[in-house]
Amino acid sequence: MPEVMKKKQSLGKFDLTTIIVGSSIGTGIFGLGSDLAKAAAPGPALIAWLIVGTGAVCLVASLNNLGQKQSESGIFGYAGKCFGPMGEFVSGWIYWISGWMGNVAYAMMLMSAIGFFMPELKGMGNFLKIFSSILILWFLSFLVSRGIKSASFINAIATCAKVIPLILFIVVMAVSFKAGILTADFWGKVNDSAISGTYQSTSVFKQISSSLMVMVWAFYGLEGASLLSKRAEKPSDARIASIIGMIILIVIYMLISLLPYGVLSRHELASCPQPAMSYVMQKVVGPWGVIAINSGIVISTLSAWLAWTLLPGETLMILAKDEVLPKVFGKQNKHGAPENALIFGAILQTFFLISLYFTEDSYKYAYTIATSAIFIVYLFVGLDQIKYSYEHEKYGNLLIGIGVIVPQIWALLMFRYWQALGLFVLYLPGLALYAYARKECGKRLEIKEKVVIVLSVLAGIEIISMAFF
Hints:
Layout: H1 3-9, H2 13-24, H3 32-39, H4 42-69, H5 77-83, H6 85-117, H7 119-123, H8 126-145, H9 148-176, H10 179-183, H11 193-196, H12 204-216, H13 224-227, H14 235-258, H15 266-270, H16 276-285, H17 287-321, H18 339-355, H19 362-391, H20 395-413, H21 417-440, H22 447-468
């Protein structure tokens, strides 16, 4: 690629930071208060934030450390460094699954938010929502195909715009905040019949555990700068952008989720329908608050959807260039965009959006698969951090790696078999593509790779049998 085009396609710290914030602040933040109130009282929620925040810091620190020591292909390249080409494929393919499955969920949330401003959209049922979602999906794919720089520029504008309703919410909550409401049941000791439907109080440990799953999803996308590190103007830009993005997210999430505890009771927060933030604003300032927040949801979802159209396409392109996926996915058009990878992802997203017409469970299914997959990717990062630190006797960094893998293992242990089923159904076909890619580049599968493939297939058969027999 000519030097002029490389410069044109490169991303600076600001672009990278907005991609991280833009891809992380999606639909979840607008329901965070209600979901968290159902799971925990203010005290346990605060402890859970400290745990998740520490895990996020460890993840970013690991990415920064490994990025300095190991120049790899984004976040999934570390799995390759630790476990070889097969490791990079598994991590990268699962990361790709996570990205586009999240986009399917974004589509339905966006249509629900637009339905507030266009009631006729709700009256037309699922068909119009799905048709509109598919049109937006292909438009975003076309936008990214025009060049990564132009798409990231629009993402930067959208990120700045959608933060305004969030800041407004924080200001309103801070002005209305009353310490007496916050401390009324700080540890959740009062019986929570209105919250959980029982007359037994929930232990602090259980409240913390329930909060973790809600909070971890909020940091989805924090690794965005790592994936786009090869597009950065300077390697240090990706590392700085990750740290800045993490700090911004932690501050925003903690304020948005904890301040409402001092404005409304936990019962009132937990009983708010989604998007909870809209209804909290309505109770405090009236109808105009709902309009402001729902406007934020539309902008937020479009911005996150745009970012996650860009990142999965980059993933397949890099995997193809690293010879763990067929070369066809590495093809770039004249704008430097991964055209075939974008088309392939758009086709699969179209298929799953159409499936929403036949079932009401597809939104939850897509959201669950997206979150399940990202835990595995983060786990690989932590394992490589531990391996590298042990080999070089950097025991402080080894502890950071442990700080990454502990919350991921904790989350994985909470998964149900049907979540694993969905992930395996999407993961197994990729093994055939991996085998073809290795043959395409003149390399034979190693014994350990064949073992992984066989074990994966057997595990998939077992999980499928549990679901249907």
